Amino acid sequence: MKILVIDDDAMILKMSDFLLRKAGHEVITAESAQRALELLPQKPGLIFADNQMPEMSGIELLEMLRSNELTKDIPVCMMSGTLSQDLIAKVVKFGAVGCIEKPLQQMDMLRIIEGVKMGG
Description:
The protein is an alpha/beta fold. It has one domain: Rossmann fold, CATH 3.40.50.2300. Helices cover 42% and strands 20% of the residues. The chain has five helices and five strands; from the N terminus they run E-H-E-H-E-H-E-H-E-H.
């Protein structure tokens, strides 16, 4: 599966790239939501997006993706250092496939990927 990982932390991008490639996936990384938007023509099958990024948050990106006919069906999983009830409510509201806590665990990421592969 082609997976786009968005985070302003270079270490998170490197770790995600390593973990996901090790599991057999093609990985595209972006250091900002704006850069991620430029990479969407590569048609990722899943997006992992950090919520707390400068300029545009992950929730703002998710909202933008959902309002566009070409991107509304791309599965998105939010990543956050702090999972608050408010964040979880927004993730649910905008139809994300999940929300995982950082530091990232390979098992959490693979669970989301398997859910997407199974259609949910």
